[in-house]
Specification:
Oligomer: single chain
Structural class: alpha/beta
Radius of gyration: 25 Å
CATH topology: Nucleotidyltransferase, domain 5
Number of helices: 3
CATH architecture: 2-Layer Sandwich
Number of domains: 1
Helix content: 25-40%
Length: 146
């Protein structure tokens, strides 16, 4: 007589499979190339005599802070308060040391709004601050509305 097999007591350990799935998720999230989102509503000031910045001569650690016409502060299209901006700058400074900041402000932005961003940078150790402007208005999307 053949032995009867007990199938009820047989279990499969799912822990290794779940670990592998989580490792794959982490891998794909970390290696995903983040695209830099810029606010299309910001119209830049003329900068005919400024330095031309290309991907070759801009440090990779540069942070671009946007200031809209109404004073909205953002990084990669995420709205920030001054306190949140200072926390981001402070933590990045503590982790990487001094880094350059580029301010991308609308030409109609009040100087007070840009000054708040500059003050937040200097209060947290960032002293290399620059401004993004347009050198040639003939570039598509660079024309000022009349």
């Amino acid at each position: 007589m053949a032995k009867k097999r007990n199938v009820e007591g047989c279990e499969m350990n799912m822990t290794p499979m779940i670990d592998v799935v989580f490792q794959l998720i982490i891998f794909f999230v970390v290696t995903l190339k983040m695209t830099e989102e810029i606010n299309p509503d910001i119209v830049l000031e003329d900068g005919k005599h400024g330095e031309i910045i290309t991907a070759d001569n801009q440090p990779t650690q540069t942070v671009t802070i946007e200031v809209s016409r109404r004073g909205r502060i953002s990084i990669s299209n995420a709205t920030l308060s001054i306190g949140m901006l200072e926390n981001i700058i402070r933590s990045r400074y503590n982790k990487f040391g001094p880094f350059p900041v580029m301010i991308r402000a609308d030409y109609r932005t009040q100087h007070e709004d840009v000054k708040r961003v500059m003050d937040a940078c200097t209060r947290n150790g960032v002293w290399k601050v620059g401004f993004i402007a347009v050198q040639d208005r003939r570039v598509k999307g660079a024309a000022r509305p009349k």
